[in-house]
Amino acid sequence: MNLTVSPKLPLSLMAKPIGSICNLSCTYCYYLEKEKFWPGLVSENQMSEKLLETYIVQMICSSPDPVVNFAWHGGEPLLRGIDFFRRVIALQQKHGGGRTIGNSLQTNGTMLTDEWCRFFTDHSFLVGLSIDGPEHCHDHYRVDRSGRGSFTKCMNGLDLLVKHKTEFNTLTVVNDYNSQFPEEVYRFLKNIGSRYMQFLPVVEWVDPEAKHGRPRILPATSAIKGEITDWTVDAVDYGNFLIRIFDEWVRHDVGDYFVLTFDCVLENRMGVPPSVCVAARTCGNAGVVEHNGDVFACDHFVFPEYKLGNLQEKSMMTMMDSPFQRQFGQNKYDSLPGYCHRCEFLNVCNGECPKNRIIRTPEGEPGLNYLCAGFKMFYRHTKPYFDFMANELHHKRLPANVKQWAQKRMDLTSAG
Q1: CA geometry: angle at 249 spanning 244 and 252, to 5°?
Q2: By C-alpha distance, which of 348, 329, 336 is closest to 271?
Q3: Using CA atoms, how far apart are residues 32 and 16, in angstroms rounded to an integer?
Q4: In angstroms, rounded to a whole number, what is the distance separating the alpha carbons of residues 167 and 209?
Q5: Which has the higher per-residue pLDDT, 9 or 403?
Q6: pLDDT level of residue 45 (50, 70, 90 thresholds)
Q7: In sequence order, which residues have a C-beta less than 8 Å from that of residue 370 and are 6 or more positions away?
């Protein structure tokens, strides 16, 4: 197996040490259904230490950067146990070769303990906390397997992160319910100490003929005519959600609080590679490593037709730099309909995530992003402010200077 360092392909793989297994049963979760691909007991669906070492070695050897970042997801990765992650650190130190190693982990927070948080702090983990806003928003869909809300346990976990000074950010899934409370959600996140926020819109297209268990989520390329779920956020509601948060952020919080969607718009406006793949022109560098070593093209494309191979049979670089994966990434741009190519916001949006391209353009062409109308509202509303911030950066001034300008502009607009 060739493990030479690639000089060209920065990888951002998401490892699933416990697969899709989770202690919660969130209504909108697109990953819980993946358990049907690997049926069996929990003990049979865990990444082994042998596979873990293979993954860590290949990840380090495949990274062209001086810093190698590992991302641990699920399901709920804490279910794999703290000893597994102690082994992670030992293996990273063993094979790091002097490289700087970073670790991030996404959790629902309900299983956090003093021991976990001390471990994360001691080893400089960045913890992503999944939280959908105040209690009535969070508990609307984020429930355990008995249907009980998870807010109280999540907040207990947050208190432990704060107590142990563990670095954390937040991920908020924007759905049909909490999208109605943008300022309340944003202020709540600020109040709990989140300075780095990601708002992830839920768009799920399911097979209406799936009669048993959870609805079968379909890839955007499916020939089956799917149906939008009730919990999917409305496109216009999502646009308004972003606008109303932006209006508060741009007047008061630029430079103090960071919203990933806003960062990406400014990055694209400046010609800087955006922080996440959904905002980039092409994709394909962010694969998934499942608990058994199966590698897939993307976290949102864990379907048999997007399986690239297995780490125990092929090298990571062979799979992630394969013609199939390169074409998968290029398709993000190549599959855009003409309607998008004529759009004034193409260089900011880049069609967003291919998984959401499930509707037709006004001319009837397939492949339009379900959220297009909302994104256009948001980009149009925010353009003057991003233009101002981009100009400040061009002149080596702080983008936070926009706050005073935005306040005056909005005051004049409301007065007029």
Answers
A1: 130
A2: 348
A3: 12
A4: 44
A5: 403
A6: confident
A7: 203, 228, 232, 235, 356, 357, 358, 359
Model confidence pLDDT, tens digit, residues 216-249? 777 777 777 788 999 999 999 999 999 999 999 9
Which pLDDT belongs to residue 223? 72
Between the alpha carbon of residue 58 and those of residues 63, 96, 261, 317, 322, the distances in Å are 8, 11, 31, 8, 16
CA dihedral 350, 352, 355, 358 (to 10 degrees): -80
Q: Is the peptide bond before 75 cis (omega within 30 degrees of 0)?
A: yes
Element (H, E) at 197: strand 196-201
Instruction: List active site positions.
Output: 299
DSSP state of 291: T
* Two tokens, residue 226: 């799917």
- Per-state percent for the chain, helix, strand, coil, to nearest 5: 45, 15, 40
- C-alpha of 165 from chain center: 23
Q: What is the mean pLDDT of residues 284-298?
A: 95
In single-letter form, the type of residue at position 379 comes to: Y
For residue 88, what pLDDT is reported?
Answer: 98
Tokens matching residue 213: 């268990």
φ/ψ of residue 258, rounded to 5: -125, 125
pLDDT digits (tens, 9 = 90+) for 339-380: 999 999 999 999 999 999 999 999 999 999 999 999 999 999
DSSP state of 358: -
Which of 76, 60, 81, 87 has the alpha carbon at shortest distance from 22? 76
How far apart CA 339 and CA 42 sit, in angstroms, is 46
CB of 23 closer than 8 Å to CB of 52: no
pLDDT of residue 211: 54
Instruction: Please give the radius of gyration of the chain, using alpha carbons only, rounded to the nearest integer.
Output: 21
